[in-house]
Amino acid sequence: EPEVTQTPSHQVTQMGQEVILRCVPISNHLYFYWYRQILGQKVEFLVSFYNNEISEKSEIFDDQFSVERPDGSNFTLKIRSTKLEDSAMYFCASTPGTGGSNYGYTFGSGTRLTVV
Amino acid sequence: KNQVEQSPQSLIILEGKNCTLQCNYTVSPFSNLRWYKQDTGRGPVSLTIMTFSENTKSNGRYTATLDADTKQSSLHITASQLSDSASYICVVLGGSTLGRLYFGRGTQLTVWP
Question: What are the DSSP E strand ranges found in chain A?
Answer without folding.
Answer: 5-7, 10-13, 19-24, 31-37, 43-50, 53-57, 65-68, 75-79, 88-95, 106-107, 111-115
